[in-house]
Amino acid sequence: MGKVLYSATMSLDGYIAGADGDMSWLTPYLGPNPQVDALQRRIGALLIGGRTFRGDDPNRGTDKEGAFSGTWTGPSFVVTHHPPAEPVDGVEFHPDVETGLAAAKAAAGDGYVNILGADIARQCLELGELDEVLAIIAPVLLGDGTRLFQHPGGRQVRLERVSVETAPLATNVWMRVLR
What we know:
Elements: E1 4-11, E2 15-17, H1 34-40, E3 43-49, H2 50-54, H3 67-70, E4 76-79, E5 91-94, H4 97-108, E6 112-116, H5 118-126, E7 132-138, E8 146-147, E9 159-166, E10 171-177
């Protein structure tokens, strides 16, 4: 069985989205990233939060709209209590993380289940299902927004560094969740 990975581009101060979920800040930092390109070939399925699915894609309206700048073509599983009325090609909707994750794992086989969405990642961590985190750190400070990881009251999660790589527009920090 594959692993569950949370990957996200974040500002140096730890935000993956700006105020009110704004993702436009990300546009200048989307560019060549060989490690992310290689990772995408190892992903078997995406597990996506409802807010992320409905969110502010910095590439909306362009040929790069969608996950991984529009290059993702595999199965996607969205956790939401409000699925759209019309079906979406390649997307299954699930009412909770447990069923969405089970479906994504089955579809991914030996590949990664890649999580898109901070709340879904937090829930997978709380379920003991998160294996790795890839933080793609953009050289910018946002000051407000959605954090990479937020747990009311705080929570320490021990991680082990797997690798650190510099890409042209970001620094990739890959970590393993210690249990």
